[in-house]
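for the writeup, i need someone to sanity check this before i put it in the appendix. the sequnce is what the collaborator sent (i think, or maybe the updated version? ugh). structure was predicted straight from it, no edits. if anything looks off just tell me and ill rerun, i have time this weekend
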Amino acid sequence: MRLHVGIDIRKYFDYGIGTYIQTLVHHFQTDNELELTYFILPQQYEILRNKLQGHFILEPSKLYSLRELFSLTIHVRKSRIQVFHEPHYTFPFCLPIPGVVTIHDLIHLRMKTMFSILQRAYAYSMISHACKSARAILVNSQFTKNDLCQMFDVDDSKIYVTYLGVQAYYYEQERTEFIEQFRSKYSITSPYILYVGALKPHKNLPFLLYAFSKLLKQYRVQLVILGESIARNNELRTLISELRIEQHLINPGRVSQRELRAAYQGARMLVLPSLYEGFGLPLIEAMASGTPVIGTNAAVIPEIVGDSGFIVDSNDELDLVKKIEILLNDDDIHRIYSMKAKQRAQMFHSKQCAEQTKAIYKFVSQ
């Protein structure tokens, strides 16, 4: 008999959490041991009904609203669902069945200057409720588990580290001609440094921009920024103008999955300059692609990178410049870190994440 699991996938098209949801769902689709019910927004139905196999429950509640915390429970009570999974910290009230919650990070509580008092209070109360009410808590790293235990009164035996994984797609070699098409399409004519992600303050992009401006005095190199459009960010646009690096910066915004793979495999390196990360999925996607990585010594990043990439202090601009120069100039070191990256990435396969999550569903349902 199959285990009937309900999963709230209303954030399916978000950046980080959306990728996490898509990864789980991709593997669960072909799992004969699970029967799946998806909670979705009404406007998502036409797209997702052709992508996913399973039952759908339309949930029109606004994300982060009081209504969703009760409405999801009402739907569950009317269904045959045996286990409910909330892949974000907004765990429903009075859930009548075992529940699993994924808490990706404590950024609202650790990066206080980024959020209002109300936002921080909401995050604290909801995470506290989730820790008390969920039968199992999933986190993406040992760092987040330790962070959670430090800030909340939670039994660490109910916290499970399930490292995020990337789909096998990123481990596959892209055709050389498609990588060249990608470079041509976006006018990439030099070796390039890649950044993938949002442009929020904790991503610490100015740190990379300052380092890049120094490199341009000596090297013919480009910086490719994927994920969001800089045109919408006045502070970054002003800084880029002041540093006079516009002509060396490529910002296509969000690209297709295939172009993203081409971007990773064509890059000389990926740099993640963040001040805080719950996981840092671009690191693993780049490593799976065989691209050397440079990350900061912040939060979970050293745990993810291990000794397979370079770690720099998030305030040491000269060290970042030095590490970039090594990967630009030394082909032997570049080759070594490319191999180490691919080996390390095997620890973070999406199938493993999905299998661990399914095992927890089974455990809490007993």
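DSSP finds 15 helices and 13 strands in the chain. The first helix runs from residue 16 to 28.
thx in advance!!
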